[in-house]
UniProtKB/TrEMBL annotation:
Membrane disposition: Multi-pass membrane protein
UniProt subcellular location: Cell membrane
Main location: membrane
Name by which UniProt lists this protein: Diacylglycerol kinase family protein
Enzyme class: transferase
Gene3D superfamilies, sorted: 1.10.287.3610
Swiss-Prot/TrEMBL keywords: ATP-binding, Cell membrane, Kinase, Lipid biosynthesis, Lipid metabolism, Membrane, Nucleotide-binding, Phospholipid biosynthesis, Phospholipid metabolism, Transferase, Transmembrane, Transmembrane helix
An MF annotation (GO) of this entry: kinase activity
Organism field: Sporosarcina oncorhynchi
PROSITE patterns recorded: DAGK_PROKAR
EC number: 2.7.1.-
Length: 115
C-alpha cells in the first residue's frame, strides 16, 4: 500500500515540476483559469463543464507527455539526430492538434452564449 501512495507523490512532483519549469504548461494553466472564469460568468451547463474539464485534462496531460518525450530524447542523445528531432516534433504536433481542437470546441460552447 505504501508503494501505491508513493506513486501519487511522484506524480504530484511531476505536475509541480511541469508547472514551475515549462513555459507552455504555464500558458495552458493561465488559459485554463480564464476559461474557468468565462464558464462561471456564462453559466455553463453540467455537460459543457464536463467537456471543458476533459479538454483541460487532455491538454495538460499531453503537455506533460510532450515534456517527458523531450527529456527522454535529450537524455538518450546530445547529438542532432533526425529521429530525435522527429520524436520531439511529433510530440509537439500532438499538443498543437489538441490545442486547436480544444479552441474550436471552446468557440462552439462559448460563442452562442456571448452573442
Amino acid at each position: 500500500m505504501r508503494a501505491f501512495f508513493k506513486a501519487f507523490h511522484y506524480a504530484a512532483k511531476g505536475i509541480v515540476h511541469s508547472l514551475r519549469s515549462e513555459r507552455n504548461m504555464k500558458f495552458h494553466t493561465i488559459a485554463l483559469i480564464f476559461v474557468t472564469i468565462a464558464g462561471l460568468l456564462t453559466g455553463l451547463s453540467i455537460t459543457e463543464w464536463m467537456i471543458i474539464l476533459i479538454l483541460f485534462g487532455g491538454m495538460l496531460s499531453l503537455e506533460m507527455l510532450n515534456t517527458a518525450i523531450e527529456r527522454v530524447v535529450d537524455l538518450v542523445t546530445t547529438d542532432h539526430h533526425p529521429l530525435a528531432g522527429q520524436a520531439k516534433d511529433v510530440g509537439s504536433g500532438a499538443v498543437l492538434v489538441f490545442a486547436i481542437i480544444s479552441a474550436v470546441i471552446g468557440l462552439i460552447i462559448f460563442l452562442p452564449k456571448w452573442f
